[in-house]
C-alpha cells in the first residue's frame, strides 16, 4: 500500500515537473506571439535634426500604427552614434529596444575608432535598411568654382577646406575620397555635428562642406550654398540639375548614406521577421515615401534580413578599404 502511494506521488510530481518545463519552454513563444505588447523604443545615436533623426521620426508613427503600439524615438547622441548603438547592444533582446543606425556607426566606425565597445556584425542583428541618401558636395558661393572639374582645378592651386560633421564618419571619408580622386589640396575640417559644420560653410569660414543631402537642402535652395555634385550613381530627384560625381569626372567619389534598423543580437527570429515585414510595409506606404522624397531621401529596403546581413558585410569591407587608403581616423 505504502509502495503504491509513493509510486503514485512520484508519478504526480513527475507530471507536475513536466508541466512546469513545458510552461517555461512555451513562455518565449507566447511572448513572441503577443509581440508587441508595450511601446518600442527606437534609439537614434545622433541629436535631433540630423538625417538619422529625420528618418526615424518619419517612420515611427506609421511603424507603430502597423504594429499596434507606439514607437518612441529615443535620442542618445555621442561619439558618432557609438553611445546610442552600444545602448542598444546592451538592451534585452526582446524587440522593445531597436536602433535606427546608418553607415557611419555600423560600417565605418569599426575602421576609424581604435576602441569600439561592440562589433556591429556580431552584437547586433540587422532587420533591414529603410532609406538612403547621397552625400552632397557644396561650396560657399564666394568660392570661384561652379563645377566639380573647377573645384579640382582650384584644389591644385591652393588649399580648399571642407567641413564635416566630425571625424571618422561617412562625410569625413567622403572628403578623403574626394582628396584621393582629385589629387588636390583638400583639407578636412571636422566639427561636432552637422549644424556647426553647415554654419561655418555658409559663413565662409571654410570653403565647402560634404554631408547628407537633406541637411543641406534648405541652404542650397536659399542660395546660401552652391551644390556642385551628389556622390551617387544617379541624380537626386529634389536636385535634378546637380550632376553626380561620376558626371563630374570623379566616379570613385561614391558615398551614399543608408539607414537601417537593428536589434540586439539573440533577438528571436519571429520578432525580427515581424519587424521586417512591418518596416517594409512602413517604407512602402505612399505617405512615408512622399515625406522622404521631399527631403531627398529614397526608400531602400532589403529582400530579407539575411540579405541585409550580406549587405552589411560588403559595406564594412568597402569602407574599411577607404579608411585604410585614406588614413581617416576618429581618434
From TrEMBL:
CDD domains: PBP2_Bug_TTT. It comes from the Bacteria. The keyword Secreted does not apply. Residues 1-31 form the signal peptide. SUPFAM superfamilies: Periplasmic binding protein-like II. It holds the Pfam family TctC. Keywords: Signal. Belongs to the UPF0065 (bug) family. PANTHER family: BLR1237 PROTEIN (PTHR42928:SF5), TRICARBOXYLATE-BINDING PROTEIN (PTHR42928). This is ABC transporter substrate-binding protein. The lineage of its organism: Bacteria, Pseudomonadati, Pseudomonadota, Betaproteobacteria, Burkholderiales.
Amino acid at each position: 500500500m505504502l509502495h503504491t502511494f509513493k509510486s503514485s506521488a512520484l508519478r504526480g510530481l513527475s507530471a507536475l515537473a513536466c508541466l512546469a518545463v513545458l510552461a517555461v519552454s512555451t513562455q518565449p513563444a507566447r511572448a513572441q506571439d503577443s509581440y508587441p505588447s508595450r511601446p518600442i523604443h527606437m534609439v537614434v545615436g545622433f541629436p535631433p535634426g540630423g538625417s538619422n533623426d529625420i528618418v526615424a521620426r518619419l517612420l515611427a508613427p506609421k511603424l507603430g500604427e502597423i504594429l499596434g503600439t507606439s514607437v518612441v524615438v529615443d535620442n542618445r547622441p555621442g561619439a558618432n552614434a557609438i553611445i546610442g548603438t552600444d545602448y542598444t547592444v546592451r538592451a534585452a533582446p526582446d524587440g522593445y529596444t531597436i536602433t535606427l543606425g546608418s553607415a557611419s556607426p555600423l560600417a565605418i566606425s569599426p575602421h576609424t575608432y581604435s576602441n569600439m565597445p561592440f562589433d556591429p556584425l556580431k552584437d547586433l542583428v540587422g532587420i533591414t535598411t529603410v532609406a538612403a541618401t547621397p552625400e552632397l558636395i557644396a561650396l560657399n558661393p564666394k568660392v570661384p568654382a561652379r563645377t566639380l572639374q573647377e573645384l579640382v582645378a582650384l584644389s591644385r592651386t591652393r588649399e580648399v577646406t571642407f567641413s564635416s560633421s566630425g571625424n571618422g564618419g561617412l562625410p569625413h571619408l567622403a572628403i578623403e575620397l574626394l582628396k584621393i580622386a582629385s589629387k588636390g589640396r583638400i583639407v578636412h575640417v571636422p566639427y561636432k555635428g552637422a549644424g556647426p559644420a553647415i554654419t561655418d560653410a555658409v559663413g565662409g569660414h571654410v570653403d565647402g562642406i560634404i554631408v547628407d543631402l537633406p541637411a543641406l537642402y534648405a541652404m542650397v535652395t536659399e542660395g546660401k550654398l552652391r551644390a556642385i555634385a551628389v556622390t551617387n550613381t544617379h541624380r537626386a530627384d529634389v536636385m535634378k540639375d546637380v550632376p553626380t560625381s561620376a558626371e563630374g569626372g570623379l566616379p570613385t567619389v561614391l558615398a551614399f548614406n543608408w539607414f537601417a534598423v537593428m536589434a540586439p543580437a539573440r533577438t528571436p527570429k519571429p520578432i525580427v521577421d515581424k519587424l521586417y515585414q512591418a518596416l517594409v510595409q512602413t517604407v512602402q506606404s505612399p505617405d512615408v515615401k512622399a515625406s522622404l522624397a521631399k527631403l531627398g531621401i529614397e526608400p531602400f529596403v532589403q529582400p530579407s534580413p539575411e540579405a541585409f546581413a550580406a549587405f552589411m558585410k560588403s559595406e564594412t569591407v568597402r569602407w574599411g578599404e577607404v579608411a585604410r587608403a585614406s588614413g581617416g581616423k576618429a581618434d
